[in-house]
Amino acid sequence: xxxxxxxNFAWGVLVWNVIVIIWGAFVRATGxxxxxxxxxxxxxxxxxxxxxxxxxxxxxxxxxxxxLALLGVVALLVWALRAYPKGHPVRIAAIWTxxxxxxxxxxxxxxxxxxxxxxxxxxxxxxxxxxHLVNTFLLLGALTLTAWWASGGxxxxxxxxxxxxxxxWLAVAGIFVLGMSGAITALGDTLSIAGGISPQENAIVGGxxxxxxxxxxxxxAAGALVLWAVWSGLSKxxxxxxxxxxxxxxxxxxxQLVLGAVNVALKAPVWVxxxxxxxxSVIWILFVLYGAVIMARGAPLPERDPALKPVQAxx
Length: 315
Fold this sequence. Notes:
Elements: H1 4-29, H2 54-83, H3 89-113, H4 123-150, H5 162-194, H6 203-210, H7 214-236, H8 240-265, H9 270-294, H10 309-314
Helix pairs in contact: 1-2, 1-4, 1-9, 2-3, 3-4, 4-5, 4-9, 5-6, 5-7, 5-9, 7-8, 8-9
């Protein structure tokens, strides 16, 4: 069942959330996370604060965009519950989208209330940033599946996928680890470059900066896993959509590796950080779509061992 109005709305909510994520990275990269003080959901204790500082304007605008994203997901869920029957994949994906959006809002609130913003230096903040990235990926994944299934995509059959399934989920794990290391690396850049905190004088910042060397290594490993997942999946299910999503993800991953090198060479300018995160989001969305195609209910399962056929026939 294709509901084009709902599908178009779902794709729009997905795009808006990507914009919100990029704007959130701008807040972090410019050290504007404390623009509203330690107040949440109010900003500087007011519903509409006086924008007397640039940081306040940046942070408050991010909160407005995040609020609109939340309203969009609420509308997406209510519409799904009214338009689709119980058990429909669109309904299920919309429910999970709402769950991850609530978690996303709670994480954002916790970062503000715990003052893990601006140029705060702590190990705990690094863990929070990594967890924030994981939930962001889950949110985008759920949103993508909501839009895809509303557009007519077939529901999933995850079990029994053999090498195709193994390679895909290993690649997903690799992307998650890469994303978490990227979030920690970006935090180190913010503190050392934008914050002007010397890695030689602060052990925590020094440790975050030193972890930069591991990020490209993880990137190459994750890229190899993505390439393996696409190659193995397309060898079994070479449909047009699978090829488009799979090879687009691989190609953009290559561009991302080059952009990462540029980011290091230019000492992490804000515009490169934002472009880097945008590409990360697009790659993840494409890879989720690729998985939705190769593991759709209509996708072929691996052939069974011929030696088992006589046994099955006897039964």
